[in-house]
From TrEMBL:
Entries under Gene3D superfamilies matching the protein: Tetracycline Repressor, domain 2
Organism the protein comes from: Sphingopyxis flava
Xref: InterPro entries: TetR_C_Proteobacteria
Record-given protein name: Transcriptional regulator TetR C-terminal Proteobacteria type domain-containing protein
One Pfam family linked to the record: TetR_C_7
Domain Transcriptional regulator TetR C-terminal Proteobacteria type: from-to ranges: 1-88
Domain of life: Bacteria
Amino acid sequence: MWRTVIESRAESPQIDLAMNNGLKRTLAPMIDYFERAGEVGILAIEDAEAGARVFAELASGGLAAFMCSPASPDEQAVTLRFALDIFLLGASPRQPAPHHK
């Protein structure tokens, strides 16, 4: 399925534009949140847009979500909790590691 979408994007600029605009619209609230959370020190994300893309990929199940049968609500909840744990733990501010001699 992805292969068909990618090939269609190359042949039709309108599909590419629609997909990019849809993605930007979807990610905009997350980008804003990540930027504000970074400003107040809740998260340490250098690039809020990249962070939003990574989180969306984790939370949606990524490419596997398109290649498998649809997840049940329980499976979706487990995936989302796991994505939140991974993302928030990885993006939490931390003290620099001490240098060992």
